[in-house]
Design brief:
The chain is α/β, with parallel strands linked by helices. The protein has helices at residues 65-79, 105-115, 150-160, 173-181, 220-231, 235-245, 254-280, 306-311, 339-342, 346-352; strands spanning 20-25, 29-38, 41-51, 57-58, 61-62, 83-88, 94-101, 127-136, 140-149, 166-172, 189-195, 200-206, 209-216, 282-283, 286-287, 291-297, 318-320.
């Protein structure tokens, strides 16, 4: 697989010997995970998370870079992080496939740039893009392209200034999640549902590449707010109860159960809609491979009863993701992070799995 070098800086050779660290930044939290090379393969090193107060990042855009920098400074002070791969929000990204005539690799970037404005609502000068070669024939090159607004990356770069932490790569989080969850070398089609605090990311990966992403404004916070409102308790108390009881522990409270199921139904309808759309449309005249399985990840994906309720009415099997599948064999390795926590670190682990190209 060929990759462009566009997002990669060129740090000193010492970088090649450094542990791989993935830094997942969202509207409400920051998580990092470190992978270490050992004679027995990759293992989890340090990992930690920090809360990001509301208003610092909104819908993936850095609104207060100075405040975000302060959190990064604290992370540097405590863990002495140096080089990190950083996630970018998928709701701000544009992903598309492009079929190019056969050409030299050195000409691919220029050819994509000339076609960019046909696929994204940005001028070429306003966008940053990366690409992967999906397939190459005697007459054509098929590439998967991801593009983002240049101003979005500028906001993150400004926050890193002076922290001593150097971002060596930026990557759309859907690509990191897929790298973590889809078994390496598996070309089948899968949907990944990343159920976060404030939103849910839907990703379809096929043939080893992310083919589609979508974001819906439904997340675990809505469940917590329903519990808090119904029981007349604080948000923090409701969050604790949610983690203890899940979504199936309120059978004796019909009103609350209906409210929780209503939120999950919105998510289930969106999942079903995108599954149907994927499987009912051709790709350049070629029938798409059916989705084999739906993987669940994200901070609240392991709530008791959540998987069962979400699976109701879906024709595709659904299960919690094995986030460590591409890190090491679990037959010989007991991860330093437990299974439930790993679901929150999916993006960070996927970023850490990204190796220098």
């Amino acid at each position: 697989m060929q990759r462009s070098k566009f997002y990669q800086f060129f740090p000193p050779p010492r970088f090649l010997q450094m542990p791989a660290v993935g830094l997942d930044i969202s509207d409400v939290s920051m998580r990092f995970a470190e992978l270490l090379e050992t004679r027995h393969g990759l293992v989890i090193g340090r990992f930690a998370e920090r809360t990001i107060p509301r208003g610092i990042i909104e819908s993936g855009e850095v609104k207060k870079p100075v405040d975000l920098r302060a959190i990064l400074n604290d992370l540097k002070k405590e863990y002495d992080l140096e080089f990190v791969s950083v996630s970018l929000p998928e709701e701000k990204a544009y992903l598309f496939d492009l079929h190019l005539p056969k050409m030299k690799y050195s000409e691919i970037r220029g050819s994509i740039e000339l076609s960019l404005e046909e696929y994204v609502p940005l001028k070429a000068a306003e966008a940053l893009f990366d690409y992967e070669i999906e397939q190459e024939t005697d007459t054509a090159i098929h590439v998967s392209v991801s593009a983002i607004p240049r101003t979005l990356v500028d906001g993150y770069l400004e926050a890193f200034l002076g922290t001593g932490i150097t971002p060596v790569a930026f990557e759309v989080e859907a690509q990191s999640i897929a790298r973590s969850i889809v078994p390496k070398g598996d070309k089948s089609a899968y949907m990944i549902v990343d159920f976060g605090k404030t939103r849910t990311g839907l990703t379809i990966a096929s043939n080893g590449f992310v083919q589609f992403t979508s974001t819906i404004p439904t997340g675990g916070r809505l469940l917590t707010e329903s519990i808090a409102k119904n029981l007349s308790i604080s948000f923090d108390e409701a969050e604790k109860i949610k983690q203890e009881k899940g979504v199936s522990g309120f059978i004796d409270n019909e009103e609350l159960s209906l409210a929780l199921m209503s939120t999950i139904s919105i998510l289930r309808d969106a999942v079903n809609k995108h599954c149907v759309y994927w499987q009912s449309h051709d790709d350049a005249g070629k029938k798409r491979e059916p989705i084999q399985k739906i993987y669940l990840c994200g901070g609240d994906s392991n709530l008791a009863g959540f998987t069962d309720y979400l699976a109701t009415g879906l024709s595709v099997p659904i299960e919690l993701a094995q986030v460590m599948v591409n890190v090491n064999s679990l037959d010989q390795y007991v991860p330093e992070i437990n299974f439930n926590d790993s679901l929150r670190y999916t993006t960070a682990i996927g970023l850490a799995l990204r190796r220098p190209q």
